[in-house]
Design brief:
58 residues; alpha+beta; two-stranded antiparallel ribbon; 1 helix
């Protein structure tokens, strides 16, 4: 009985994390550099290349 409770508990945690992570992901498609979310660490800068956001060294 305890193993069933542990299994259900783990499944709830996995599903919760999956939902949080998928809601937190941003759409990487862009038209300009300003469409990209600024998550780059200097000296890298956000850049829109082929409709996708990348962090490139300037």
């Amino acid at each position: 009985m305890a193993t069933i409770h542990k299994f259900v508990y783990v499944m709830i945690l996995i599903i919760f994390h999956f939902l949080v992570l998928t809601k937190g992901l941003d759409d990487p498609h862009c038209a300009t550099d300003d469409d990209c979310k600024n998550v780059c660490v200097p000296p890298r800068v956000r850049q829109c290349l082929w409709s996708n956001c990348y962090c490139n060294v300037k």
